[in-house]
Amino acid sequence: MCDMNGQTSFTEILLQSLYVFINEIRNERSENKMMECMAVHSSKQHHSLLLLLLLVLVVGILLEEANAEECKRKCGSLSIPFPFGTTEDCSLDASFLIDCKSKKNTPYLPQTNLTVQSISLNGQLRVSFPVASFCYTRNGTNQTNQQHNLTYFTVSPTHNKLFVVGCNTIGAVNAYDSEGKKYFTGCLALCNTPDYATNGTCTGVGCCEIPIMAAQELSSMFYVSLRAFTSNSYVSSFNPCSYSFVAEDGAYKFSSADLAKFHHATFPTVLDWSVGNLTCQQAKKNKNHDFACKAENSECVNAKEHGYLCNCSAGFNGNPYVLNGCQDVNECMESNDCYIKAICHNVPGSYSCSCPKGYIGDGKKYGTQCRPNSSSNSRAKNILIIALSISGGVIALLVVSFYVYWRMKEKKLIKLKEHYFQQNGGLLLQQLIARQRESTDETAKVFTVDELNKATNNFDENKILGKGGQGTVYEGLLSDNKTVAIKRSKISDPSQIEQFINEVVVLSQINHKNVVKLLGCCLDAQVPLLVYEFIPNAKVSDFGASRIVPLDKTQLTTLVQGTLGYLDPEYFQTSQLTEKSDVYSFGVVLVELLTGRKALSFEMPENDRNLALYFISAMKGGNLLDIVDNHVMNEARVEQIIEFASVAKRCLRVMGERRPTMKEVAMELEGLRVEEKHRGESVKLYSEETEELLKSTVSTCIVEDVNSSIGQISMSLGGGR
Predict the structure, then answer these.
(1) Is the pTM of the predicted complex or chain greater than 0.70?
(2) Domain limits for position 18
């Protein structure tokens, strides 16, 4: 046992004597009969001596407690833990004395004027270091330097800084460590006006700071404050004094008001302390050294420079320098890792967690916690887990199966679309569009069947604009909110795909006010779909590539027709449409009016299907009147029919340069109309079908005079088809 001073006490000596006495009794016992010898061979003398030692021990403890009560552990507001004390009997040794008598209830270190502010058992204490100053007065200058020799303590090299406050002021520290090695540092603060000084910062304007970064702990320190220049009269008006001081890092916050008047006389400074000069191992083995770590559950750690310190072991706190000084920490009363339903068990230096009855687990918040351990609940849980597992497995299997089925179906649909796209000439169309883009911006757009399904709400019947023998026309709304007409044919013929694709490319370039513009097509459907611009109250006619007709074995399955019947033959050689191309197309229209036949007629023998060729052949063979429509023959004169046929024939010349211009055609037709007028014939026969056919031509030069002339001639001829 040790008294509150930490020295070996009389009670401890008694305990050691009692320990030796008990060991002697044990040595007298037989090795084979230990418990028996304890009872039989103990003599009355041994009993008497043992009782006497116990009595003396009790008295010693009572005397030590009385002595402990005499040790002051408080001086003013300062708590003084052992090994520190106010007397030698109450401290470990003279190096830990705190003087509390010289100055009434003001603790300070003996042989210094340093007031003690706090003491920590982790090897540090705080004292008040005074400020060094340099002032201008009426009588000259007044300088106060500071020097401190610390016999048993050292200035901490890691917790303190040198601060300098003033304008044009140098602060310097000159110090020595315990081995006599010199350490010097300092900093310079400049300013010519307080306006540039920033509160809270010490960066060189009005204030500077520098860490005390000595390699060794400093036992002697001298610091001063000086003006940097010989003439400082211009700053003395707002900064009469400059200051330097060593203080704990963070203890001072600069204020520009301190330049005019500094209100601090001292600052807290951190000092390091340790026990003796021996290491832990040396102190434990040295019989002449009174080992300072008295408490059970305490540990010894070597100090940074010399000596050692004592700490309480993990799970204990208190004062390791006194007996029973390290007390167990009751973690159950503090924050711990036990689960909310668990029971906390405090044990010396630690704690444990357990689950209450009926629960299993480690009782830890971040472990297995505590869960019910009922056998019935466990069985129900197991059944529930099995059921959920089976259900989850079935659901997962269904989901996976559905996903696989959906993916296979999607892949099959994609392949089918690719098949339709290639079958309907998609690759050829892409090649032609690529070539076409080199010379024009007017190219056909390739739509997907998904786009058109969405545009027509899956070809809803409410979207139908009209039906015919060749297919159905739907109104559609594209993703860009553009309304279009979509023609869905009934059947397609793979043998005519190349011809169909060529027509799509050609028609997509035609941009005329009287022609419904072809915007593009869809080729990944079973039959091609054609997309036209939408014209309210207008019919998408069977003109050009818009016409697809179904045929049985005696006919073609399907054939894109119409446009080839009107198209300039020169286009197939040059791929260019000219004004004379419009003349050719108009000539076909004139022949349609004259004969009552369509541009292409598949009901006729193969050599007679193309109306233009059939008409030229009849003209050359002198059989014109044989092919003229009966209605025309009954209403018109033969001379008029021949003149009308002559105009159409010149329009159908193979070489475009030999064809008349549209203006010349219009003038000839107007001449025929005027001639009829003079002859007094006024038959008004301009049918609605004829007007619609005229609007469907690809002419870019049809003028109102032409339409008027055609109308008059048609009336004279008997009204067209």
Answers:
(1) no
(2) 10-70
